[in-house]
Design brief:
Layout: H1 7-30, H2 44-48, H3 53-78, H4 91-118, H5 120-125, H6 146-164, H7 168-185, H8 195-199, H9 204-211, H10 227-232, E1 238-242, E2 248-252, H11 255-263
Antiparallel strand pairs: 1-2
Helix pairs in contact: 1-3, 1-7, 3-6, 4-6
Length: about 260
């Protein structure tokens, strides 16, 4: 007797498992001597973040519940009643689908994310929930208002999947990769040899700038590239410098711009 799990179910639940497993690695690292690689002093989480970690866990689980519901609904609508598994295209086509999906996801998230900052009502009642984590950490990556999670992440993911034309099997790997990237961008660490930092300018330091008061109107791009920030003038360059007392700090290059943003 064999028990098979469909690609659709794997595409729905594997990225969620990856989220908690990859976040768990950072939780384990947090217990090690890694203060030299922190973007904020260790005690700053408790001082600046206004929500407890248990509240964050519950919030993320709610968002993932919506994610599961939309994913299963999508696969039901586009599914083949015959039960036939779609044949995987050649590797080159899969690579192209990844690139298209990354572009679509970045484009959707940039404009939706930026609008949630421009619209004062949406920022106050929706997006500000994510910014209660001034000092980001790994498993807080998807701590959002449920409506924001639905619009930015779930719908954005569905559009990426549909436009790229990928199979459910390919989506397992794409959404797992996107999940790892999102968690890494919020980890609050700058670890030596991190291959994601080598491949992408959009990284933990880049996104940390956005979570600070002076960067609130900049660095909206997520989770892969920084092109829309550069094209549309919302890119805030930074330098990574050693902090007095140990660790690292992402500091804006244009201090005048940062001071103006902070006062607005």
């Amino acid at each position: 007797m064999t028990f098979a799990v469909s690609d659709e179910l794997l595409g729905t639940f594997v990225p969620i498992a990856v989220y908690w497993l990859y976040s768990g690695l950072y939780i384990l690292m947090d217990r090690m001597e890694i203060d030299d690689y922190r973007l904020h002093p260790k005690g700053e989480e408790e001082v600046k973040n206004v929500v407890s970690k248990w509240t964050v866990v519950k919030g993320v689980l709610v968002q993932q519940g919506f994610q599961i519901a939309v994913s299963l609904l999508l696969f039901t609508i586009i599914g083949d009643d015959s039960g036939t598994v779609r044949k995987q295209p050649p590797a080159l086509v899969i690579a192209l689908q990844f690139i298209i999906a990354m572009f679509v996801m970045d484009t959707w998230q940039y404009f939706m994310h930026r609008y949630m900052h421009i619209n004062k009502f949406l920022y106050k009642h929706i997006h500000s929930k994510h910014h209660t984590l001034v000092v980001p950490y790994a498993f807080g990556a998807l701590y959002n208002h449920p409506l924001e999670g639905l619009i930015l992440d779930t719908i954005g993911g569905a559009l990426s999947f549909l436009v790229a034309g990928m199979t459910p099997r390919t989506s397992i790997f794409f959404f797992s990769f996107a999940t790892i990237k999102t968690v890494d961008d919020h980890c609050g660490l700058w670890l030596p040899g991190n291959i994601l930092h080598m491949l992408f300018s959009n990284n933990s330091a880049y996104h940390d700038i956005h979570h600070q008061l002076y960067g609130n109107k900049y660095n909206f791009s997520q989770p892969f590239f920084v092109m829309w920030d550069k094209i549309l003038g919302t890119y805030m360059p930074y330098t990574l410098e050693e902090r007095k007392g140990g660790g690292l700090e992402a500091r804006p290059v244009n201090l005048g711009l940062a001071a103006q943003s902070k006062s607005d």
